[in-house]
Amino acid sequence: MIDKPEHSASDLTSVRHFLLDLLCQLAYKEGDFVLSSGQKSSYYINGKLVTLHPQGALAIGRLLFSMLPTNTEAVAGLTLGADPIVTAVSVVSALENRPIPALIIRKEAKGHGTMAYIEGPTLSEGAKVVVLEDVVTTGQSAMKAVNRLKAAGYQVESVLALVDRQQGGAELYASEGLQFQPLFTIADLQAYVKRE
């Protein structure tokens, strides 16, 4: 059902529904959890169970690719959560004859060789890069990627994410002058889980 590369609106609507179902089945769990931000939560979203799933990665690649501004020159994200996402979007972009390279931002500089923070092709000064993220809570992870990219001379104006937990990330991005668009909010996931 989702292996066709065309991007008609109705086709992307069915891909979006498929992805929401997959996120709720595989990634969303209720219980007592401590998040990477240190906050306690009554639910947890393990995005990697979907971003590393073959059909999940394809759906994510197609949906996020369709949301990219037309002037996007690369997609990037902070390792590890964003790695499969930037790869999926880059692969889909090649299938769509609009190849967009992927960049992976290290949390610490490489300890040998080039000592780089950013892995992937070197882009021209001022290249427009969109930051991708799996689950946004406070927004700090994607901001690390944004700041590294800006320090390297690239322009970053937007962040796209799979799920917004609606716990301050959107407000942080707005305060930094970034556009933010999640595929889903936590309200979307919880409403779907309740219906099912």
UniProtKB/TrEMBL annotation:
The gene is pyrE. Homodimer. HAMAP family: PyrE. Pathway: Pyrimidine metabolism; UMP biosynthesis via de novo pathway; UMP from orotate: step 1/2. Catalyzes the transfer of a ribosyl phosphate group from 5-phosphoribose 1-diphosphate to orotate, leading to the formation of orotidine monophosphate (OMP). Belongs to the purine/pyrimidine phosphoribosyltransferase family. PyrE subfamily. One of its GO terms (molecular function) is orotate phosphoribosyltransferase activity. Keywords: Glycosyltransferase, Magnesium, Pyrimidine biosynthesis, Transferase. Its cofactor is Mg(2+). One of its GO terms (biological process) is 'de novo' UMP biosynthetic process. Orotate binds at T137, R165. Its EC number is 2.4.2.10. This is Orotate phosphoribosyltransferase. It catalyses: orotidine 5'-phosphate + diphosphate = orotate + 5-phospho-alpha-D-ribose 1-diphosphate. 5-phospho-alpha-D-ribose 1-diphosphate binds at R106, K107, K110, H112, E133, D134, V135, V136, T137, T138, G139, Q140, S141.
